[in-house]
Amino acid sequence: MKKNLLIVFIAVAAICFGHQAKAQGKPTATSGPVTVNINLTDAISITLGADPTVNFNYTTAADYAASKTVEKASHFTVVSNKPYDLTVAATGAFTPAGGPALNIVTVTVPAATANGGTPVANVPLSTTAAALVNNSTASTGAVYTVDYTISNPASLLNLAGSAYSTTVTYTATQR
Predict the structure, then answer these.
(1) β-pairing, 130-136 with 168-174?
(2) How far apart are CA 103 and CA 16, in angstroms?
(3) What separation, in Å, do the N-terminal and C-terminal C-alpha atoms of the chain show?
(4) 139-150 and 106-108 strand pairing
């Protein structure tokens, strides 16, 4: 009987150790440390909208008697990974020669589209870059509306009938 009891004890012990060995699970391996880098470069761009041309049409006598604003919705889009400032400048005088002075046209970005920046109202066109919006926030696609205004068309009087043109350039500079 002692022998049978010893055999039962050994059998129970073997079963317990067998279950304990199975409870240890599958073998695992761990890699060494892995470095993950995010390499950033400052980036900024301006993309003009589909129809960037601004046309002031003076075809009737009434057109010469009141101010006129041409709103260019979605005029351009700025992408910048840092805050930035916007400036505007004309590349030269209106052509053909003898046309109106550049400053007859003023440019404004409405506050609603200033991308968190501070817009400067009624910026007269000049060949010197002038602040248009200060401290806009970083963005993956800030869309700007621009209002072009001729508030006093009196200086258009006595000009020959023609299309007077200049080129305007917008510059975005990161802060």
Answers:
(1) unpaired
(2) 96
(3) 94
(4) antiparallel
